[in-house]
């Protein structure tokens, strides 16, 4: 099964040959995420500007169907029908399997209150402190790899026992030194880095979906 999943990386590189240098780090990031989800953990995602949009995008791909059908498990469907036959039928038909992921870029009341009352650069760190549990994963997206609010979040995550994945450009950066693995795409201009970030995280999402919801999945 894993051999079939790894085809997604090969397809990614065939479409974006420049990303061949990231093959190993993409694989490692997938392994970290797969282990976390196998252990019923969750993913936290953060970034600024376009990377904030990417954070939302990633959560959208993980929390609902991406390329594959994700019907809820039979036991869950039957339980919902027993609780309420009418509502349960609708839930069993339309709910989709999810890989739990939370973006730290929303929550306007929380973020504005914290930014007003405390240090604005710690807003992602504060949420990691509240949501994060040992075994969870933080994905920090930063084209420079030096965004202070992402770095503070990474330090907080490491202190709480989370794994940290970085997604950056190719320049040396502080996030790469803090992360358990850092996918550094081979570009230095912000918009070009962002253009390569999207196919990388789409690949990761497809690999995870294949593992947990594919036809040979035991989930």
Arithmetic mean of pLDDT: 95
How is the largest sheet built, in terms of strand order?
Answer: 2-1-3-4-5
Main sheet makeup: 5 strands, parallel
What proportion of the residues is helical, as a percent range? 55-70%
Order of helices and strands: HHEHHHEHHEHEHEH
The parts where pLDDT drops under 50 for at least 5 residues are: none
Q: Which descriptor suits the 3D outline?
A: globular
User: What's the total number of strands?
Assistant: 5
**Tally the helices: what do you get?**
10
Separation of the first and last Cα atoms: 13 Å
Helix and strand arrangement:
Blueprint: H1 2-15, H2 23-38, E1 43-46, H3 50-63, H4 74-83, H5 85-94, E2 101-103, H6 108-117, H7 123-131, E3 137-141, H8 148-159, E4 163-168, H9 174-178, E5 181-184, H10 190-213
Parallel strand pairs: 1-2, 1-3, 3-4, 4-5
Helix pairs in contact: 1-10, 2-10, 3-10, 4-5, 7-8
Explain how this protein is built.
By secondary structure, the protein is an alpha/beta fold. The protein is built from 10 helices and 5 strands; from the N terminus they run H-H-E-H-H-H-E-H-H-E-H-E-H-E-H. A 5-stranded parallel sheet has the order 2-1-3-4-5, with helices on both faces. Helix 7 runs parallel beside helix 8 (148-159). The mean pLDDT is 95.
């Amino acid at each position: 099964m894993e051999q079939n999943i790894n085809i997604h990386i090969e397809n990614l590189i065939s479409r974006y040959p420049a990303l061949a240098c990231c093959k190993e780090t993409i694989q490692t990031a997938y392994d970290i995420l797969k282990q976390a989800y196998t252990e019923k953990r969750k993913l936290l995602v953060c970034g600024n500007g376009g990377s904030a949009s990417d954070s939302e995008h990633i959560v959208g791909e993980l929390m609902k169907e991406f390329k594959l059908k994700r019907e809820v498990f039979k036991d869950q469907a039957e339980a919902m029908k027993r609780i309420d036959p009418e509502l349960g039928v609708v839930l069993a038909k339309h709910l989709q399997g999810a890989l739990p992921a939370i973006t730290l870029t929303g929550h306007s009341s929380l973020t504005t209150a914290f930014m007003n009352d405390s240090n604005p650069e710690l807003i992602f760190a504060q949420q990691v402190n509240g949501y994060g549990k040992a075994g969870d994963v933080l994905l920090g997206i930063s084209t420079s790899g030096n965004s202070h609010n992402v770095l503070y979040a990474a330090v907080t995550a490491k202190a709480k026992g989370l794994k940290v994945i970085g997604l950056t450009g190719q320049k040396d950066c502080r996030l790469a030194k803090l992360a358990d693995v850092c996918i550094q795409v081979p570009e230095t201009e912000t918009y070009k880095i962002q253009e390569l970030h999207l196919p990388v995280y789409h690949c990761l999402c497809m690999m995870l979906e294949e593992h947990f919801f594919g036809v040979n999945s035991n989930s």
